Amino acid sequence: MNKTHDASRDFTSADGRQFKVSYRRIHGKTPGPTLTLIAGQHGMEHIGPVMLKNLAHELTKTDFAGTVNICACANPLALEKDYEFYPEKEDISKIDDYFYSIFRHDYCIFGMERQKGVNLYNMNRLWNRSAIHGTAGAITDWLWQEIVSPANLTIDFHCLQAEKPLIFNWNSKNLPIAAAFGAEAIYPHRAVDEFNQGNLAFQACREPEKFAFCVEFSRQHGYKDEFEFGRQGVLNVMKTIGMLPGTVQLERDVYQVNEDVPWHKLESSAVGHIHYHVKQYDAVKQGDPVLSISSLENFEVLECLRAPVDGILGLLGKRPVSGTGAPLAHILECTRLATAGVPLEKFPLPA
Ligand SMILES: [Zn+2]
Asked: What's the pLDDT tens digit per position in 231-261?
């Protein structure tokens, strides 16, 4: 058994809820880098928290070099409500009458949609700030000092609504480590303004020798069986940075979506069922058929959409029927970072 240290802090929200946030520090048997894993900042994203609680038990009994810090549930009140943030100064009871729909994904019952700008209840915009904003800000302030600031590498776990997991990355220096996690696509991300710069994975790799990225599982408001993917991803990263022995060999290629290149939208005005001919993140060549649209009124194929460039099939539309004007899919120009079956280079971090 490794030496472990469980730490908690008590918090009280503006509406009087008392609760704890906890993390576990696991010391490996030999010196090595410090890896920090955080999940559960957004309350509708539960796969990371469950995966990290299991992993905390496993790593307590695993021989490794260095130190692992795990905070599985950074935002317990938001997780309890299955809501993105805990709006401690609003009418919380509104959440109980609310039903999420994937077709109005960006809707917020408190009028704090992301496109409307600054929302200081959003925990993942409150990292490494000089001012503390609410209870969420008090939590990030504590976790930053305790487990993020001392880490060589921080991985932040979230969930999207997508077909497959992906990684968001704010700095190209992280790519050799992020590729080893095994998500098939790594999307470059920009912290477009001061508010968005409060993102954990942006802040945690600002110093030259610090690394960070964000893993997005692919189901919000529920579970999808991606626990083994997440577990294996962390173990792959630990091998890559020198905390576990062995080399990483992935079963699927990993691509970085090219920065500063627009996504090529596949659109159609024809109304019909969508038949995808390739899977998400499969490589396609210019001219390859990507999807076709079949009539709702007869057996005709109305249109076949082909890849306008070489790339991979990116994020898909949410609806089963075309003709709404929304893109049906995107072809992304990309760079292959890892090839299936070929051992990856190690990228050791200092002890
Ligand atoms: Zn999130």
From this structure: 999 999 999 999 999 999 999 999 999 998 9
Residue 351 covered by a domain: no
- pTM here is 0.97
The domain of 174 spans 3-248
Q: Which two tokens stand for residue 246?
A: 């062995």
Do 178 and 33 reside in the same domain of the chain? yes
84 C-alpha to ligand 1 centroid (Å): 7
Tens of pLDDT, residues 38-63? 999 999 999 999 999 999 999 999 99
Whether 231 and 276 share a structural domain: no
Specify the pairing of strand 289-294 against strand 301-306: antiparallel
> What's the CA-to-centroid distance between 11 and ligand 1, angstroms?
21
CA 52 to chain centre: 14
Residue 23 near residue 70 (C-beta atoms within 8 A) = yes
